[in-house]
Amino acid sequence: MTWPAASLEAIESELCQPGSPFEMETLSIRGIPTRTWKHAPPSIRELVCSSRGHGERLATVFGDDRVTFEMQYRAIASLARFLSARGIGKGDRVALCASNAPEWPVAFFAITSLGAVVVPLNAWWTAEELVYGLSDSGAVALVVDGTRWTLIAPHCARNPRVATVVVFRGEATSSAKYESLESLLGPPSAWDMLPDDPLPDTPLSPEDDATLFYTSGTTGLPKAAIGSHRNIMTNIVSASYVAARTVRRRGEPLPSPSPRTGLIITPLFHVTACSANLMGATAAGHTSIYMRKWDALEAMEIIEREKVQATGAFRRSPGSCSSIPNGTASTSRASIPSATAVHLPRPNWCAALGRSLARCPRTAGA
User: Fold this and answer.
1) What mean pLDDT is reported for the chain?
2) Closest by alpha carbon to 209, among 138, 267, 161?
């Protein structure tokens, strides 16, 4: 078969025709004519509601914690209702500072489903940088893990605007201001026992603000950029389209949707893991596995045990796969499956979109 099997123009005409999952339309967004995906989810809240349809499929795995999509939805709804009862609502900024764990996507989705703006702070920042991020963002609440809380807690007086603090996997001072996430939701293993309550009813527009991500600040103080619900949801369809186009360029039929398992080694506070991975995984019913910290030997054991089909790339350095002595793991490099970038949006929005996703081989962690 010759490459390419069809031109980019021909494939675009095929995939984006009227009535197709990838149909586009031009809208005026803040006065600027903008091409958009006509059938993209309208908001993160809609994504969360649809993700419940994945049911008992695992959403996240973290050590011994195994959280299904149903468990995750109940935790999201419960946390969202708590934040709403604290007076947090549309337009309020809520900081989220933690390493990768099942609680991170729960907090992210709970905040954004309320119409509040989530501020994912860099979990690798120093105490001074974290205090700056809280102040600069205008956050009125904070969801934080225990490790980061030990850095931030001594400086609470410098951010009096932060009226609600929810701490997980750590100790929270017992007061009206500080809450333990475990006291609200229980441990992740018990999230299936949470009440079957709906998300708070918050009308959202695709152009409403949803995220405030910070730069690294390597040449000065970190700068933040606002993202709308449309920004975040667009990436789901865009990634699907690129994958579908690759398949059709090879002259192959679009594959049937198939949930997959991925090892997430990039931090969720970065847009790569959050926007490019978490959103698509939530839409598709993929399983995301998190690690407490990077360890090459542990990663290979996870890949073998959990039948991982997708992971990110990282640069070879001391402590990576190249540093593992021969014979120290039952998993050889040859046995690690090729990583695959796959995003499968739910048919709630796009009836045939899932079929359009390509399997794009990449080397896992090499």
Assistant:
1) 86
2) 138
Percentage above 70 pLDDT, the chain: 83
Whole-angstrom distance, CA of residue 277 vs CA of residue 313: 13
8 A C-beta contact, residue 344 and residue 258: yes
Peptide bond between residue 21 and the one before it cis (omega within 30 degrees of 0): no
Q: What is the pTM of this model?
A: 0.86
Return the H-helix or E-strand segment holding 178.
Answer: strand 178-180
Beta bridge partners of 34: 27
Residue 230 CA to residue 207 CA, distance in Å, equals: 6
Strands of the chain (E only): list them. Answer: 24-29, 32-37, 58-62, 65-68, 93-97, 117-120, 141-145, 164-168, 178-180, 209-214, 224-228, 261-264, 287-290, 310-311, 339-340, 361-362
Nearest Cα to Cα of residue 288 among 108, 37, 125, 142 = 108
The C-alpha atoms of residue 170 and residue 114 are separated, in whole angstroms, by 25
Write the single-letter amino acid at 218. T
Report the candidate in 115, 118, 130 with the shortest Cα–Cα distance to residue 94.
118
In terms of average pLDDT, the best of 1-15, 67-81, 313-327 is: 67-81
Q: Are 248 and 5 in contact (CB under 8 A)?
A: yes
